[in-house]
Structures are given as structure tokens and as C-alpha cells.
Amino acid sequence: MSVARMLTGDRPTGRLHLGHLVGSIANRVRLHHRYESFFIIADLHMLTTKNTREDIERVADNAREMVTDVLAAGVEPQRATFYLQSAVPEVGDLNTLLQNLVTVPRLERVPSLKEMARDAGKEEMPYGLLGYPVLQAADILCVKGQVVPVGRDNAAHVEVTREIARRFNHLYGEVFPVPELISSPTPTLVGTDGRGKMSKSRGNAIALADSPAEVRRKVRGMYTDPNRVRADVPGSVAGNPVFAYHDLFNADQAEVAELKRRYQAGQVGDVEVKEKLATALNRYLDPIRERRARYEADPGLVDQLIVEGTERTRAQVRQTLLEVRRAMGLTSAYSRIRRRAERSRARPVAPA
């Protein structure tokens, strides 16, 4: 490979939001000019927490929305390979081979898995969720990904991939690059309710595709300083989601500094602070909305990108899987059996 490869993506469970943007998508936009970029639509990973017939029937529409969101955020279609995970069945074969290179206690130490189960309302962890990092390793290694831009909640998953790649190479020979993790410079974005990270399942997210009116509605309902009962009561800026969003998304930092000063002095109400945040957020999202409108005006473009990318990815994965099987000796084992069977069939049968 002359150009290093990047693998990243999301589960098709709905529209992407500001948490995705600051946690990973902005990083992808910055990096996809530097690397050959594969973007996975991880519908098999979705099944670990969402696996009803209704969930699966929504995959196609959610995949289109997700790809459109990524393009609207600034990823250029000619520089990206989008593919549907379940349409590359060879990834499952690789997952089967890799799952023997990691132990159950090691997977149980991945901190985000229990959180994912809890968010999905699972009292007990499904087998597939425990193996989520192994399938993610198969995703990364099947295209020989060398860099993986992720949010902090997925960093432990990528470390499992690195361990599996090193273990495989030690046992069977150098097949896989050990991928490098590229973390987002921005910490996890708190949700609008102030209760943990922004999440579609928690209903505390501002979607990249939200209209200006919808953004204003959500900002008006945002959690703020609970001890502040009136505008003339000094408020706290630290840990206040409204000001955390101002710091990240308001380009007018002089305005932010003045709002903080007045808020801490009890000279400005939450209504004004939130109104200015809504204005700043909509200004931030306007270029994303404009790009989304351009892509939506080209019917079939996103579907074509997914189909072409899936076919290209499947060809690459077949080649990787062949290399893996050869390195492990699996192809030679069957070849020896087949040759003996052919010699046996060719041998003349002795008369009775």
C-alpha cells in the first residue's frame, strides 16, 4: 500500500449529532485528505443492542442518512469508500479466526461495553456485545487499516485490535499493520440534559440535520446551573453545558467571555445566554445544512456511493482473508486432504 489507510465509521441507528461531530467526524474530515479512507456502516455492530425486525428494516434509510451527514460535515465523496458491513460476509469469517486470539477476561475489562449494555436496557450482556471489540478488530484489519480516528469511548476497543494484530503476527507471520489510534482533541460532549454524553438513545442530542427552529427548541430546554433561580443570582460557568457548548461552537469568543462574566455576576439571564447559543449553533451548522441540501438534490448519489464502496471493500477483504488463511495454514490443510481424496479416486479398484 503506497498510501496509509484509515478505517472509521458508525452504527446506522439514526442521524448523527454534535457529539459525533466533535468526537470523531471532525477528525475524519481533517484526516481523509491524508489517508485512503474507508467508512464503515456498522450494521452488524448495531445488532448487539438493536436487533428487532423493525431495527433491521430501518438500516437502509439510516445508512443513507448517516452517509449524507458525513458528506455534509465535509468529507468529499471522491476521497471516501463507504460500505455496508453486513454486505461483506468475509468480515464474519475473519472475526471467527481472530476471536481465538483474545480472552474473555480481557474483553470484560473494556469499560464501554457495560455502558453500552446499560444504555440499551440490557440486564445481561449479550455474547455479541462482549465480542464487539473483536468484530471491530476484524473491521479494521480486513482492510489493513493503519490509522483509526475515534472518540475516547472507543479508544479501549482499538487497543484490543492492536493486541490482536500483534498476537496474530507473532503466531503466523506479518500480515497485519498494527493500527494507530488518533484521538479527538475534544472530550466527550455532554448531552443537552446534562446527564452524561450526548446520545441518540438518551434523547439529549442535537442532530446535524436539525432545522434552525429545532435547534432553538432544544437549546431552550438545555440543563443549566440548577442553583440559579433568578437572573440576578450569580451562576456557575464550570460544568454548565450551555457554556461548554458556547466554548466549542461559538466563533465569537469575545461574546462568550462577556456572557461568562455577566453570568457569574448575576447580570444576565439563562434565556439570553441560550438564545445567543442557539444563534451560534445555527451559524455553525449552516454550512453543513448547505452541503446536505446539495447532496440530497442528487437522487441516488448516496446509494451509488454505498454500493460501489461495498463492492470495492469486499474485493479487498477477500484478498486479506486469503492471506490470513494462508498464513495460518488453513488453505494447505484442506489442499492436502483434497489431493489425497483425488489420488484415492484415481487408484484402480482391485477385482473382487
UniProtKB/TrEMBL annotation:
<keyword id="KW-0030">Aminoacyl-tRNA synthetase</keyword>
<dbReference type="InterPro" id="IPR050203">
    <property type="entry name" value="Trp-tRNA_synthetase"/>
</dbReference>
<keyword id="KW-0436">Ligase</keyword>
<dbReference type="GO" id="GO:0004830">
    <property type="term" value="F:tryptophan-tRNA ligase activity"/>
</dbReference>
<dbReference type="InterPro" id="IPR002306">
    <property type="entry name" value="Trp-tRNA-ligase"/>
</dbReference>
<comment type="similarity">
    <text>Belongs to the class-I aminoacyl-tRNA synthetase family.</text>
</comment>
<keyword id="KW-0067">ATP-binding</keyword>
<keyword id="KW-0648">Protein biosynthesis</keyword>
<dbReference type="Pfam" id="PF00579">
    <property type="entry name" value="tRNA-synt_1b"/>
</dbReference>
<dbReference type="InterPro" id="IPR014729">
    <property type="entry name" value="Rossmann-like_a/b/a_fold"/>
</dbReference>
<dbReference type="InterPro" id="IPR001412">
    <property type="entry name" value="aa-tRNA-synth_I_CS"/>
</dbReference>
<protein>
    <recommendedName>
        <fullName>Tryptophan--tRNA ligase</fullName>
        <ecNumber>6.1.1.2</ecNumber>
    </recommendedName>
</protein>
<dbReference type="InterPro" id="IPR002305">
    <property type="entry name" value="aa-tRNA-synth_Ic"/>
</dbReference>
<keyword id="KW-0547">Nucleotide-binding</keyword>
